[in-house]
Design a protein that fits this description.
Number of domains: 2
Order of helices and strands: HHEEEEEEEEEEEEEEEEEE
Number of strands: 18
Distance between the termini: 107 Å
CATH topology of the largest domain: Jelly Rolls
Shape: elongated
Oligomer: single chain
Length: 285
């Protein structure tokens, strides 16, 4: 009986070793894996937009394009062809999309950067652009008419929240609503209709126009429908109605104030916020 059991064990081990060897034979070598991967130029799936770097502001820039197939997009960039920096698409969700707005951050003034856009499709196809270059402007010399911009001495004095607990100058932070770059956004942490942000201007001003650009998510959430503006003396202006999140809207006003609070009183819920907020007018001497 022991001899039979021993024989069975030997046969079993032999069969198992053969199975392992068969698995090893079926496995692809590294060079074969690369050969089996499908690579295509990213230009082959661009439906709208292009690969140019635009929207230079506050040491950031962006790329805007729409693809004909959903891909998870990223950009590698840096001052040499070794790159050194990596940024993912400016979507919060970690899935493949067709609308792409990757934001390149921590850029130095008057510097030439090398960059390449790359993405992965849901079928495993990898899309690559050529290595290209762009040159940044002198960020410190840039100006704006927006009295709510930090370039004109405005400061953020309060806000309801920021996604991920972001600081004012971080991605999704409150400062992104006033940086002059519609590729960045202030996003709350699910505040919905309770989202608000307050700024203090460099000095009292006569404001004749208010501009607001709502952020949005691909699932239809985070869109602001109506907002109000409240001054330091409690005067409330609005509500102002936004037709969509596809563009910014400008509203004529007659406001004199030094502090302004923006309340998002009607939204589609979720991580509400703003791509851009601006006020225009003149400082009162």
């Amino acid at each position: 009986m022991r001899r039979i059991l021993g024989f069975v064990l030997i046969v079993f081990l032999f069969v198992m070793s053969g199975a392992v060897m068969a698995q090893d034979d079926d496995a692809l070598r590294p060079d074969e894996r690369i050969e089996a991967t499908r690579f295509l130029p990213v230009e082959s799936i661009i439906a709208d937009g292009d690969l140019r770097v635009t929207d230079f502001s506050n040491h950031t820039a962006a790329i805007h394009l729409t693809t004909s197939v959903a891909v998870a997009c990223q950009v590698v960039y840096g001052p040499t062809q070794d790159f050194g920096q990596l940024v993912f698409d400016a979507q919060m969700a970690d899935f493949a999309v067709i609308e792409h707005n990757p934001v390149l951050t921590d850029l130095e003034s008057n510097t030439t950067y090398y960059y390449r856009l790359q993405g992965t499709g849901t079928d495993g196809t990898i899309y690559l652009s050529e290595v290209m270059t762009f040159t940044t402007p002198d960020f410190d010399a840039m100006t704006t008419d927006n009295l709510a911009s930090p370039l004109n001495g405005a400061k953020i004095v309060g806000y309801s929240s920021a996604f991920g607990g972001a600081d004012i100058d971080e991605r999704w932070g409150a400062g992104s609503a006033f940086d002059g770059n519609p590729s960045t956004a202030w996003s709350t942490a699910g505040d919905g209709d309770n989202a608000w942000i307050e700024i203090q201007l460099a000095q009292r001003a006569r404001i004749d126009r208010v501009e607001f650009w709502s952020r949005s998510m691909s699932d239809g959430s985070s869109i602001t429908r109506r907002f109000t503006v409240t001054t330091e003396d409690g005067a409330v202006y609005g509500p102002f109605t936004l037709e969509s999140a596809d563009q910014s809207y400008i509203f004529e006003t007659t406001i004199e104030a030094e502090r302004l609070r923006f309340d998002l009183i009607e939204t589609t819920g979720g991580n509400t916020g703003a791509l851009e907020i601006a006020v225009y007018g003149t400082f009162i001497e």
